[in-house]
């Protein structure tokens, strides 16, 4: 089994990929960006991809949502990780003038950074483990990353966890082929657009209500077809093969101006 993830080794995406693979011999393929993970999955149906999709403090990862809209990939599993960030450096006695991390991680530590490092330069990089690597290579004074990434890069811990409380990130496992594998807790994700008429979103939401389906997320993103035009990302509890879910989705598909089933999948939660 091959699994592409946002690398290098030690990113939270790496930890999520490790949770997905049970096979010791599985090959984990580090990618520089989330776009690259999507590209690899699209090129080779034997490779799975792991991407972050939503964080409990900072919200959605828009690159992931935009790729889900435009690319033909399926969600085959959700993995939820508790995320704990540490401020790390190579040489604790050195003054810190620059701190690198992934933009999501910097935002998840916003309050701490404002309180303790207000005038320090914050450098946004592709992943938390890449920030740790930059710190090891003396390109920045400090990094925000996981304990594991700090250890991998022989960094010392200055402080942590430094993130906002209740910090969880959802990751999706992607595949070029759909795989409807049920687990203990199952979810289904769709994207739809409504016709530009009064009450059209309300009428679609009424269908979920009619079939007694629990929405776990709804988010609008620009459809990228014009100002004021949106697509709605919706996650619901339930599996697509359950009668209520499949009946509701059939009606929603008929009533929408655009509809895409992203997948029905089980959830792995720590
Ligand atoms: O930089 C990493 O370690 C990632 O896996 C990316 C990412 C994200 O994009 O949300 C994943 C989990 C954390 O929320 C912070 C960063």
Automatic annotation (TrEMBL):
- Name the residues that span the membrane: none
Q: Where is the Prephenate dehydratase domain?
A: 2-176
Recorded hits in Pfam families, A to Z, give: ACT, PDT
* ACT domain residues: 189-266
List the PROSITE patterns hit by this protein, alphabetically: ACT (PS51671), PREPHENATE_DEHYDR_2 (PS00858), PREPHENATE_DEHYDR_3 (PS51171)
The answer to whether the entry has keyword Transferase is no
Supply the alphabetized keyword list.
Amino-acid biosynthesis, Aromatic amino acid biosynthesis, Lyase, Phenylalanine biosynthesis
One MF annotation (Gene Ontology) recorded for this entry? prephenate dehydratase activity
In which domain of life is the source organism classified? Bacteria
Tell me what reaction this enzyme catalyses.
prephenate + H(+) = 3-phenylpyruvate + CO2 + H2O
Keyword Lyase carried by entry? yes
Q: What class of enzyme is it?
A: lyase
Q: In which pathway does it act?
A: Amino-acid biosynthesis; L-phenylalanine biosynthesis; phenylpyruvate from prephenate: step 1/1
Q: Give the EC number.
A: 4.2.1.51
The family database entries (NCBIfam families) matched by this protein are listed as: PRK11898.1
The name on file for this protein is Prephenate dehydratase
């Amino acid at each position: 089994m091959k699994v592409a993830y946002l690398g290098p080794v030690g990113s939270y995406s790496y930890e999520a990929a490790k949770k997905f693979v049970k096979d010791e011999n599985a090959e984990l393929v580090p990618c520089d960006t989330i776009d690259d993970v999507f590209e690899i999955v699209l090129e080779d149906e034997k490779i799975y991809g792991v991407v972050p999709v939503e964080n409990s403090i900072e919200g959605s990862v828009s690159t992931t949502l935009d790729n889900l809209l435009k690319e033909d990939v399926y969600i085959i599993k959700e993995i939820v990780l508790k995320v704990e960030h540490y401020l790390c450096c190579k040489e604790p006695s050195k003054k810190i003038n620059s701190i690198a991390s992934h933009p999501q991680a910097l935002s998840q530590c916003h309050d701490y950074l404002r309180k303790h490092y207000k005038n320090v330069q914050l450098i946004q990089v592709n992943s938390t483990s890449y920030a740790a690597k930059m710190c090891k290579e003396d390109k920045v004074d400090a990094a925000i990353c996981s304990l594991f990434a700090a250890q991998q890069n022989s960094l010392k811990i200055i402080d942590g966890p430094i993130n906002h409380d209740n910090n969880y990130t959802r990751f999706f496992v992607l595949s070029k082929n759909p795989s409807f594998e049920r687990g203990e807790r199952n979810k289904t994700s769709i994207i739809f657009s409504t016709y530009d008429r009064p009450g059209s979103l309300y009428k679609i939401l009424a269908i979920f209500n009619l079939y007694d389906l629990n929405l776990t997320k709804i988010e609008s993103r620009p459809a990228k077809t014009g100002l004021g035009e949106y697509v709605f990302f919706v996650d619901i509890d339930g599996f697509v093969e359950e009668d209520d879910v499949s009946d509701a989705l059939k009606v929603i598909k008929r009533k929408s101006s655009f509809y895409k089933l992203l997948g029905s999948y089980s959830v792995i939660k720590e």
